[in-house]
Amino acid sequence: MLDQPVVALAAFLASAAVIMAAGVRMSGVADRIADRTGLGEAMIGGVLLGASTSLSGTVTSVTAAWQGHADLAVSNAIGGIAAQTVFLALADLIYRRSNLEHAAASETNLIQGTLLIVLLSIPALAMVTPGFSLFAIHPVTPLLIAIYVYGLRLSHAAVEHPMWVPRRTRETRDDVPDEEDEDAASTKRLFVEFAGLLLAVGITGWVLARAGVTIAEWTGLSETLVGALLTAVTTSLPELVTTLAAVRRGALQLAVGGIIGGNTFDVLFLVFSDLAYRDGSIFHAVGERALFLLVWSILMTAILLLGLIRRERHGIAGIGFESAALLAVFAGGVAVQVALG
């Protein structure tokens, strides 16, 4: 039924609504899990929340790759990173006390951001080098997994034994657990609830992939454009709602960590997509537009890192320079994609 345009569009909108509702709840549950486990908001946001809110995007990319739609699979993965990064600029607009980058600075978020740039650079290098694959898998695919795991170890070490801490100011928000009863059964229920939300988000990812292909064929738009601006933004809605909800709760490191960690996990979409794509390496099945998306995402991540290091306290009109730059770069990238068709 998803092959029919009207049904596909309706399913697309319904999936977006489910993703938004689940995302709001996931933010609160993740914040409580961070307090109960003692791992901290930045770590839980970067790993558990980041990977979980990315599940719909993972399913979308893998489904598209398995069906032979390489451009849709890759553009959905990388386009989501750009969209999610600009969400932090939107969150900065609603956080009135100071600039979000200033208040939420942490060593874990800096490590995750640097790791993201490394992970994005490797597929870009793979795309511009001669095509090579073993059993239809590019050699950089297992390399990405190894680097991601190593990055998680660095992040965990930063929580246990930090080697860098931001200078405290009146606007700095510490990751202090909320006061509540430590109940093991309640903690277990939190994980069960989170798993249920995770399942709902995963199912919507499969629906979005099927609907996205139909919409691309129906409208005549390229799979890259549909992936980068339609399915990517829609599958990124959990990151948007969880980020805004976390900021309103005062869980700033959870908000920033969820975005950066989710972006880092999104690079693994390419790993899963390369495994699912059976016509050779997916990195050589896509065109220059995919390379543009990678460079676009690297630039936006570098701007975010600059903001976390510079830590401007107060910007103009309630937004910092780096957040304004993110909005401008994102708008410019969207304009280029639309112009290319």
Can you give keywords for this protein?
341 residues; mainly alpha; A middle domain of Talin 1; 13 helices; 76% helix; globular
If you had to describe this structure to a student in words, what would you say it looks like?
The structure is a single chain. The protein is an all-alpha fold and 341 residues long. It has one domain (5-161, 184-340): Up-down Bundle (A middle domain of Talin 1), CATH 1.20.1420. It has helices spanning 5-37, 41-53, 55-66, 70-94, 100-103, 107-127, 140-160, 184-219, 223-235, 237-249, 252-276, 288-310, 321-340. The two termini are 27 Å apart.
CATH class: Mainly Alpha
Number of distinct beta strands: 0
The main β sheet shows up as: none
Quote the CATH topology.
Answer: A middle domain of Talin 1
The low-confidence runs, each spanning 5 or more residues with pLDDT under 50, are: none
Helix/strand-derived category reads mainly alpha
The CATH architecture: Up-down Bundle
> Hey, roughly how much beta strand do the residues contain?
under 5%
Give the integer mean of the pLDDT values: 78
Order of helices and strands: HHHHHHHHHHHHH
Radius of gyration: 19 Å
Helix content percent band:
over 70%
Overall structural domain count: 1
Oligomer: single chain
At the fourth level of CATH, the homologous superfamily is NCX, central ion-binding region
Number of helices: 13
Straight-line N-to-C gap: 27 Å
Structural shape: globular
